[in-house]
Design a protein that fits this description.
Layout (H helix, E strand, L loop, with lengths): L13 E5 L5 E4 L16 E3 L4
Antiparallel strand pairs: 1-2, 1-3
Length: about 50
């Protein structure tokens, strides 16, 4: 996997998107429940930032 660097040169976490409501979060893994719509972890997908 290609390493992503943030503005400060630090390694960034993966970005995950809730497929139900579109909520984005930058973490090492998706949350157990979406804080917006309460969808389960399985409903998240990796979001590619370009």
């Amino acid at each position: 996997m290609m390493e992503q660097k943030g503005a400060g040169g630090k390694e960034m976490s993966e970005v995950y998107r809730c497929t139900v409501c579109g909520y984005l979060c930058a973490r090492d893994e998706p949350p157990d429940l979406c804080p917006i719509c309460r969808a389960k972890k399985e409903r998240f997908e990796k979001f590619e930032m370009k």
